[in-house]
């Protein structure tokens, strides 16, 4: 057999062999108690990313659900989750435990950032945080950013001592503020109006959207610093190039008609953008504050 014929035969045999393309899965993490509902919520985004990240080697987008911050931190630390989207408090807690990096801001429901407002009844003699010494305040739930973490952080900054009630009465001091979890912002408002607690905390958008007949019976005594509505974090060990590629795709969605539609389906997200240096500094300060806040 001639040399040319041998080469031709070898080339034909190579064409018959299966083609192997190196590809990976991108695993997006979320904290939730209901798997099917959460996967359905993310589906428009995962479908979009499976197309637009294919050129970067990601042939499949997976959703990884856990029901706790500790579980998500472990998944990020061990590489079982690559990207995590949530409000600042869970994101900060996960970052503290896993050393993940917060890179992007998600404008969930069209909102870039928000802050907390601490309020009382309009006829209350309480006008400042210092006036809350020895009083009661309602938080929503232990993992809420605006309705728990920011409020508790502000109390601690002012030298107050938030203590969950019922608790150990022996540790109550003159600077103590007793807190309860109401379970919902609606209940928090109701508790304040019914004088079950002296103060409550919710985010500014919810407070501003209250019906006038309710809002007129309340007064705001403190505003917290603003934080991003949602944060996109990447696991430790993810290459800078990969983070940059994924970030570019997410940021570009608002400029693409299909991307805009997907964002709207994804809980009315307006866009993703980079977290500014100033916001990064604010988040770092809050991250430092986490060490002073013991989860209930």
Structure description:
It is elongated, with a radius of gyration of 24 Å. The model is unreliable at 10-22 (pLDDT under 50). The protein is built from eleven helices and 14 strands. It starts with a helix and ends in a 6-residue tail after the last helix. The strands form three sheets. The protein has a six-stranded mixed β-sheet, sandwiched between helices. With 296 residues, the protein is of the alpha/beta class. α4 crosses α11. It folds into two domains: 24-112 and 228-290, Periplasmic binding protein-like II (D-Maltodextrin-Binding Protein, domain 2); 116-224, D-Maltodextrin-Binding Protein, domain 2 (3-Layer(aba) Sandwich), CATH 3.40.190. β1, α2 (35-52) and β2 (58-66) form a beta-alpha-beta unit.
Properties at a glance:
296 residues, 11 helices, D-Maltodextrin-Binding Protein, domain 2, elongated, alpha/beta
Largest sheet: 6 strands, mixed
Q: What would the average pLDDT be, to the nearest integer?
A: 89
Give the strand tally: 14
Structural class determined from secondary elements: alpha/beta
Count of distinct structural domains: 2
Q: List low-pLDDT spans.
A: 10-22
**What are the secondary-structure elements, in order, as H or E?**
HEHEHEHEEEEHEEHEHHEEEHHEH
Largest beta sheet: strand ordering: 2-1-3-13-4-14
The tally of helices reads 11
Shape: elongated
**Percentage of β-strand residues:** 15-25%
Percent helix, as a range, is 40-55%
Radius of gyration, CA atoms, in whole angstroms: 24 Å
CATH architecture annotation name of the largest domain: 3-Layer(aba) Sandwich
């Amino acid at each position: 057999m001639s040399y040319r014929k041998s080469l031709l035969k070898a080339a034909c045999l190579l064409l018959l062999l299966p083609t192997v393309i190196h590809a990976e899965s991108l695993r997006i993490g979320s904290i939730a108690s209901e798997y099917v509902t959460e996967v359905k919520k993310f589906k428009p985004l995962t479908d979009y990313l499976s197309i637009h990240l294919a050129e970067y080697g990601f042939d499949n987008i997976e959703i990884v659900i856990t029901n706790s911050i500790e579980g998500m931190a472990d998944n990020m630390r061990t590489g079982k989750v690559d990207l995590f989207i949530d409000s600042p408090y869970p994101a900060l807690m996960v970052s503290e435990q896993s050393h993940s990096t917060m890179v992007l801001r998600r404008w969930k429901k069209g909102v870039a950032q928000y802050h907390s407002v601490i309020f009382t009844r309009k006829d209350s003699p309480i006008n400042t945080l210092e006036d809350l010494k020895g009083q009661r305040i309602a938080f929503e739930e232990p993992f809420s950013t605006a309705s728990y973490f920011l409020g508790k952080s502000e109390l601690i900054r002012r030298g107050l001592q938030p203590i969950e009630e019922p608790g150990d009465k022996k540790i109550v001091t003159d600077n103590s503020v007793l807190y309860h979890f109401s379970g919902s912002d609606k209940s928090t408002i109701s508790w304040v109006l019914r004088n079950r607690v002296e103060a409550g905390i919710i985010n500014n958008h919810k407070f501003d959207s209250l019906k006038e007949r309710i809002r007129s019976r309340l007064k705001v005594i403190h505003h917290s610093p603003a934080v991003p509505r949602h944060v996109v974090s990447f696991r430790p060990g993810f290459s800078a190039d990969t983070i940059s590629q994924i970030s570019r795709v997410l940021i570009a969605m608002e400029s693409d008609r299909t991307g805009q539609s997907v964002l709207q389906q994804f809980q009315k997200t307006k866009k993703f953008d980079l977290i500014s240096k100033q916001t990064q500094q604010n988040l770092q300060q809050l991250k430092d504050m986490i060490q002073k806040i013991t989860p209930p």
